[in-house]
Specification:
The protein has about 200 residues and is an alpha/beta fold. It has a single domain, classed as Glycerol-3-phosphate (1)-acyltransferase. The protein is built from 9 helices and 7 strands; from the N terminus they run αββααβααβαβαβαβα. It has a 7-stranded mixed beta sheet with strand order 1-7-6-2-5-3-4, sandwiched between helices.
Length: about 200
Amino acid sequence: MRNFFAGLAKLVTGANARWVGCAPDVRQRVYFANHTSNLDALVIWASLPPPVRELTRPVAARDYWTKNKLRLYIANKIFNAVLIERKRPTTHDNPLADMLDALGDRHSLIIFPEGGRQAGTEMAPFKGGLFHLAKDRTDLEFVPVLIENLNRILPKGEFLPVPLLGGVSFGAPIKLEAGEPKVSFLERAENAVKELQKT
């Protein structure tokens, strides 16, 4: 069923994966991307080779994916997604703790540091969660990912996709440098995604 969904995502979006800064690998990584469509997590996940895909878990908004039984089934059984509280996090319901727990010692994550989908092509400033994740897991590679055209394939509020070609580009991994401030790291991460537009 997972392979079926991966194939369907590629067929519907026509998304081609470009590995311009690294090669696919089963090592633990955090893939962080711009966010423009409900298809984003599915398309990144589907773009990974099967051995990498099996170890990679999209991070998704719990309020969206628990709205009905079908969404919840897809999130849990197909994506093995990490469902987090994005609107009212607490010390007992902490997205960072959930992500760290989901990583464990073998899984990778797909995250969207902007927090929510953006209507246009401009990215919103990255939220601090990416920095805290990098600070707590200095052993991991953080891979920038640029998603192109998916906001036009499945515009916000639409149910059926429009036939256009999408693209997913994977860039060179970054890590938090010793003593690097949050603002500096987040700016560097944003730029790493934006730079992929030029490749």
